[in-house]
Amino acid sequence: MGDPAPQRTARPRGAWLLASASPRRSELLAREGQDFEVEPSGVDERVTAEPPATFAARIAREKAAEVSRRKPGRWVLAADTIVTIDGDILGKPRDGVDAAHMLRRLSGRRHLVITGFVVVRPSGEIFREAMVETEVAFRELTEAEIAAYVASGEPSDKAGAYAIQGGAGAFVRELRGSHSNVVGLPLEEVRRALIDAGIWQSGTSALGGER
After folding, report:
1. CB neighbours (10 Å) of residue 60?
2. What is the largest CA-CA distance in the chain?
3. How far is CA 118 from CA 6, 55, 75, 98, 191, in A?
4. Is 27 left (phi over 0), alpha (psi -120 to 50) or beta?
5. Catalytic annotation present for 80
6. Confidence class of residue 93 from pLDDT cuts 50, 70 and 90?
7. What angle do CA 7, 9, 15 make, to 5 degrees?
8. What percent of the chain has pLDDT over 70?
9. How far, in Å, CA of 194 to CA of 211, rounded?
10. Helix (H, G, I), strand (E, B) or coil at 86
11. How far apart are the first and last CA of the chain?
12. Which residues contact 57 (CB under 8 A, 6 or more apart)?
């Protein structure tokens, strides 16, 4: 008899965990051909008086740690994205009035979008931690534009009350840095981290247009 056929080991479904309920982060990673499982964290993300970058870094670490404790033995990616202007954090708007207020603050001005992300080993130890900033400048917005955008419902679950990949793309006059960071995840930096971790699945990438 000949030698037995070699055993084929299938790549496990959901090779690592994304500690986020954000559909935008999932979409960005899925477009890159990544195989992962979504495991949202239960971390309280209410805005505090911390400096913006400190807040984003802390929330990302807490998300990663919380999911890693619940799902030991898995690689975990967690991230937190905030919009900040004048040293204030603009979180998700409470309602349409709050969304309109945020958009008025951003109108005709520059602001920062900051994402802190963390990659945690199966052991629960941090493998990589990084912060990415993108500067965004809005043109002057009219009250009619603000009202129409708020009425669209798009701002309701977005930090800073806008989605650059949606209707608010027309508000942007200038962008310096990572476009995907403003969507919710700095793909170029995350890709490098996951490659170094050995869990990035190579394949078709949409990073050609990444800034």
Report:
1. 27
2. 81
3. 37, 13, 11, 30, 12
4. alpha
5. yes
6. very high
7. 175
8. 89
9. 19
10. coil
11. 58
12. 80, 116, 129, 131
